[in-house]
Write a structure and sequence with these properties.
By secondary structure, the chain is an alpha/beta fold. It has a domain of about 180 residues: Alpha/Beta hydrolase fold, catalytic domain (Rossmann fold), CATH 3.40.50. The protein is built from 12 helices and 7 strands. It has a 7-stranded mixed beta sheet, sandwiched between helices. Helix 1 links the parallel strand 2 and strand 3. Helix 1 crosses helix 12, helix 5 packs antiparallel against helix 9 and helix 6 crosses helix 8. The protein is globular, with a radius of gyration of 18 Å. The two termini are about 20 Å apart.
Length: about 280
């Protein structure tokens, strides 16, 4: 079950729609705590903890785990809110946010995403896209093989260094390494979910989307941002100088300001009136 942390507003009128922050793979709800502190005097901020590896593996044994599975409880929370929310997401969290916007746009006021890993977009016929998706398949297979051989430490290092660069694993403190070791069994199922996600309906053309990407990011996520920028009707793409895929951690304050500004720039009037059952 997805757990939600609600950061309460501080005795001031609400001037923005609610905000939901979705963390990246291997992280926790605390990833967006700085954003919540920045915005909580203007609105309510909800920070869900996405499904853990035990739940994902149980679900994956029955049927392939999907982004719909991850999004289910978040959509229910959005329905309870009674007003569309601004969705913020990084990497896997950004892909989940896009899934919600495609299938439940009535609950979404805007999107602000840092390098969403929607690997299903790389399923075209262009050789570069095929090659990029093959690389994702390869890293996922290597992680799964390491897990199967009871080498969780090697699997966690593979995942961390793939996204953060060589030496990223060694740079983590002991607590974060331990957390990653516990989380790593979820990596192959979510790689599969990201690659096999049906394209589904398009994003509504009037939905405001901000895409942020790092100057030195990986070609996989740079290509995805390029493809999303062409697809979406109302999109602003912003480059974060000096950053790679892990920019929201390395440049936390800058990202917080960029995301907060993106949300503040959106209208405070909901795009849709949610029809409750």
């Amino acid at each position: 079950m997805t757990k939600f942390t609600k950061i309460e507003i501080r005795n001031t009128p609400v001037s923005l729609a609610p905000v939901v922050g979705l963390h990246c793979a291997g992280a926790t709800w605390r990833q967006w705590r700085g954003l919540a502190d920045c915005l909580c005097d203007r609105t309510d901020v909800y920070l869900p903890q996405l499904n853990g590896p035990d739940r994902v593996q149980r679900r994956h044994r029955e049927n392939p785990f999907s982004l719909a599975d991850e999004a289910k409880n978040i959509v229910e929370k959005l329905r309870e809110m009674g007003s569309p929310a601004h969705l913020v997401g990084h990497s896997y969290g950004g892909a989940v946010a896009l899934h919600i916007a495609r299938h439940h746009s009535e609950f979404v006021a805007s999107l602000c995403l840092y390098e969403p890993t929607t690997f299903n977009l790389l399923g075209g016929i262009e050789p570069r896209d095929v090659g990029l998706k093959d690389e994702i398949r390869a890293i996922s297979a290597a992680i799964q093989e390491a897990i199967d051989e009871d080498c969780a430490l090697f699997a966690a290092q593979l995942f961390t260094d793939f996204w953060g660069g060589l030496g990223a694993w060694q740079a983590l403190d002991a607590d974060k390494q331990l957390n990653m070791l516990g989380w790593i069994p979820k990596a192959p199922p979510i790689f599969a979910a990201l690659m096999n996600e049906p394209l589904g309906p398009g994003i509504p053309s009037d939905l405001k989307v901000t895409l942020i990407y790092g100057q030195h990011t990986k070609p996989h996520t740079r290509r995805i941002v390029e493809m999303l920028t062409k697809e979406l009707g109302s999109v602003t793409a912003l480059e974060l100088a000096g950053a790679d895929h892990m920019g929201p951690f390395v440049f936390r304050e800058r990202i917080t300001k960029m995301v907060a500004q993106s949300i503040a720039d959106q209208t405070t009037v909901p795009r849709h009136a949610i029809q409750l059952p």
